[in-house]
UniProtKB/TrEMBL annotation:
Belongs to the metallo-dependent hydrolases superfamily. Allantoinase family. Transmembrane segments: none annotated. It is an enzyme of class 3 (hydrolase). Residues 228-255 are annotated as: Disordered. PANTHER family: ALLANTOINASE. This is allantoinase. Its cofactor is Zn(2+). One of its GO terms (cellular component) is cytoplasm. Homotetramer. Residues 1-23 form the signal peptide. The keyword Transport does not apply. GO terms for biological process: allantoin catabolic process; purine nucleobase catabolic process. It comes from Cucumis melo (Muskmelon).
Length: 503
């Protein structure tokens, strides 16, 4: 080597290092957020915290909330740092939607992780928990959960957790259920009536009791689709009758409130197992998507009074729509249990306001437009499931605001309590130490759903198309990353959230 080459060596080394830094660095890292800062402040006159709504600033560093200061204490503290000011807009914990079907893997043509989580981000949802069915294969074992986690990696724009399925096949096999829970399922879901998906059969009360005893050990919940078929006129019996399958009331009479009531009455045989000192202490039963605000709700109230570990959710569509609104042939509104009449809707609102209903979820359950049978408009044969994920916040608010609902209540129903149900200790509130999962939104801004970009795979089947809604999402942060602000961050940097076993 001659002298010249020796002199060039340090320079070449330097160039090589620069090359390595630029080309071998994870390319997604600076594409995860529309904001380059890791340490910054969010300011607003309306920050929703568990202690109330404050005017002030939230300090975010490395994805966590590290301090919260009130306006009067603020001066000097945030000088010289990067500040994102939302002025009069509301700054709230991001929504945690615990009931979502993204149909991935296996039926991603119905929705899929990328479109579903983009829609979630645009709607202020920072965490969602995916249901174990409608994807294929159903998520009922460690192996199928691993397939789902793999499908989610690098394709989700918000954080996503997973429920496992409790089905007859695994209900009596404690080690199979334990493997599913150890692999990270946040809890289990089961059906007391046919689910509509052949590889997700329904469970009876014996299966549920078995499932609870395993869940108790892991302190995780069982979510139950609470309807049991009763000998009311079934679609088959009705064939040849006068009833028009295009008429919503025809569908409604096929699934009366007595189905929900029968299911919860049956569930009450085992909810007592969850009491302190009971054989399934530590487990919890969550009644999914309550529609009947009558006897079914009374039974749930009774269980709560007895000290059973029970909670209940209702969905936005039961609060936004009623039988009277649904036009013949408009199968976008078909779901189970069905949307009932206006009086029922008003009672659901009362129960929510009075604290008898604990939380909200979307039960976003889309399909391909063809299966909604838009041409025939046959309510009896169309796919049952409402597409709504992008509108969780604004659809709730559009109906809540005239009822005097506060921002604290919204945060409780949509963030704090759902996070608690799913065991997500770092989610659900603007509080020190939590993940910086935040939505900034303008409650007074109205928009026409037809005028905004809808990121769902099949916007045409969403129940909210053509409607005017209040409450526009301005920005969504997931673990301090600005994932949405009029557009999405280039890379999908959401994380699969897995439950961890603590001994
Ligand atoms: C129970 O599940 C385990 C793990 O999935 C499996 O290896 C075993 O064969 C199952 N037992 C029965 C009786 O099905
Ligand atoms: C539930 O089904 C199982 C078979 O999977 C059966 O052994 C059990 O007796 C059933 N329980 C009830 C209450 O019917
Ligand atoms: C729960 O209630 C049922 C009756 O609904 C009763 O048979 C059972 O023994 C009770 N179990 C416990 C653990 O209290
Ligand atoms: Zn569902």
């Amino acid at each position: 080597m001659n002298l010249l080459q020796w002199k060039l060596l340090p320079l070449l080394t330097l160039l090589a290092s620069v090359f390595l830094v630029f080309y071998l660095k994870d390319p997604s890292e600076n594409e995860c957020s529309l904001l380059p800062h890791k340490h910054f402040w969010i300011t607003s006159k309306r920050i929703v915290t568990p202690q109330g709504v404050i005017s002030g600033a939230v300090e975010i560093n490395g994805g966590r909330i590290v301090s919260i200061v009130k306006e009067e204490e603020r001066h000097g503290k945030i000088m010289g740092n990067h500040v994102v000011d939302y002025a009069d807009a509301v700054v709230m914990p991001g929504l945690v939607d615990v009931h979502v079907h993204l149909d991935d893997p296996g039926r991603s043509e119905w929705e899929g992780f990328p479109s579903g989580t983009k829609a979630a981000a645009a709607g202020g949802v920072t965490t969602l928990v995916d249901m174990p069915l409608n994807n294929f294969p159903s998520t009922t074992s460690e192996e199928t959960l691993k397939l789902k986690i793999k499908a989610a990696e690098g394709r989700i724009y918000v954080d996503v957790g997973f429920w496992g399925g409790l089905v007859p096949e695994n209900a009596f096999n404690a080690s199979a259920l334990e493997n599913l829970l150890k692999a990270g399922a946040l809890g289990l879901k089961s059906f007391m009536c046919p689910s509509g998906i052949n590889d997700f059969p329904m469970t009876n009360i014996t299966h549920i009791k078995e499932g609870l005893s395993v869940l108790a050990k892991y302190k995780r919940p069982l979510l139950v689709h609470s309807e049991i078929e009763q000998s009311s006129p079934s679609p088959v019996q009705r064939e040849g009758s006068q009833d028009d399958p295009r008429s919503y009331s025809t569908y409604l009479t096929t699934r009366p409130p007595s189905w929900e009531e029968a299911a919860v009455r049956e569930l009450l045989k085992v909810t007592n197992n969850t009491r302190p000192g009971g054989p399934a202490e530590g487990a919890h039963i969550h009644v999914a998507h309550l529609s009947d605000s009558g006897s079914t709700l009374e039974l749930i109230k009774e269980a709560k009074r007895s000290g059973d570990s029970v909670s209940v959710e209702t969905c936005t569509h039961y609060l936004a729509f009623s039988e009277e609104d649904i036009k013949d042939g408009d199968t976008r509104f078909k779901c189970a249990p069905p949307i009932r009449d206006k009086a029922n809707k008003e009672k659901l609102w009362d129960a929510l306001m009075e604290g008898h209903i604990d939380m909200l979820s979307s039960d976003h359950s889309p399909t391909v437009p063809d299966l909604k049978l838009p041409d025939s408009g046959d309510f009896l044969k169309a796919w049952g499931g409402i597409s709504s994920l992008q509108f969780d916040l604004s659809a709730t608010w559009s109906h809540a605001k005239k009822r005097g609902v506060t921002m604290e209540q919204l945060a409780l129903w949509w963030s704090e309590r759902p996070a608690k149900l799913a065991g997500l200790e770092l989610k659900g509130a603007i509080a020190i130490g939590k993940h910086a999962d935040i939505v900034a939104w303008a409650p007074d801004e109205e928009y026409d759903v037809n005028d905004i970009p809808v990121y769902l795979k099949h916007p045409s089947i969403s129940a909210y198309m053509g409607m005017k809604l209040s409450g526009k999402v301005l920005a969504t942060f997931v673990r301090g990353q600005l994932v949405y602000e009029e557009k999405h961050a280039p890379a999908a940097c959401g994380t699969p959230i897995l439950a961890t076993v603590t001994d």
